[in-house]
Design a protein that fits this description.
The chain has 176 residues and is of the alpha+beta class. The chain has four helices and six strands; from the N terminus they run αβααβββββα. A six-stranded antiparallel sheet has the order 1-2-3-4-5-6. A hairpin with a 7-residue loop joins β3 and β4. The longest helix is centred in the N-terminal third of the chain and has 18 residues, at 2-19. It starts with a helix and ends in an 8-residue tail after the last helix.
Length: 176
Amino acid sequence: MRHRLLTVCLCALSFVAAAACTIPAASDSSMPPARVLPADARALAYGRTTDEVLQNAELRDKIPALFGRDWAPASQGRGQIAPGAAAFFGKGGPIRMVSIGEANYVSVTGCAPDACRTRRVLLLIREGGAQLLARLDDGAITHYYAYDGGIKAAAGPPIVDAGLRALRSVGDPYPS
């Protein structure tokens, strides 16, 4: 009986883990080519600042949906990010255009104002706004998120990491 109960619990745990909104990182070998594009109006399509992007009519519901339960603080009985993903946008960084693979993305960076070196976020918005990808660094733990756009879970992390690599090639993409 105990063996059967243990088996049922392990199966249930695997379903819960599979349903989580974070997706695992992939190896560097699967990263698509990426580069920062020259500044143009496309980078500001959703706003000139991080706050404007978060409040943009087209994105204001999609961004919290991207992070799911992690958007609100864990103290509110949600998610696995103690301050909540929203806090990682407390101090916004520069908004840029990044070409990754065959797609262009608006990149938005931010950090928790009290911990800019350890609590950072990179949000990528594919041109057209249908697909959102994010990387949230919470200390030593990195979380990846994907929203719509028909992307497979395993494809998200290499795209985000390639974008971050391109942004770092021209300087620190995060606010200081």
